[in-house]
Specification:
Blueprint lengths: L6 H4 L15 E11 L6 H12 L11 E10 L2 H16 L5 E9 L4
Antiparallel strand pairs: 1-2, 1-3
Amino acid sequence: MAGAPDASARGTAPGAPSETAAPTQETWTARVRVTLKPVVNDPAGLSIAQALRQLGFGGVGSVRTGKYFEIEVAADDLAGAEAMTERMCRALLANPVVERYAFSVGEAREA
């Protein structure tokens, strides 16, 4: 059948970016730490502290538990990656009522 060649004949899939598309965004790694606020009880931390003492680690004081995330994000620049990470923390990663968070963003490591 005559007409324009389909996408597979041109070597690109339908919906794939063309060679004239805008430059690709950089990949950044966001490292996010989420911990309970100091006024919030941490039963898991208490259990871990007790277990460590029972294992002979007598110098253990208090233990606070938390979460750690490494997230690869695509953004035009560092400020954009930081803004995206901030939004992710507020929207999902941390509960602002009982948790606090801190993060750093840097260039992604090569595999």
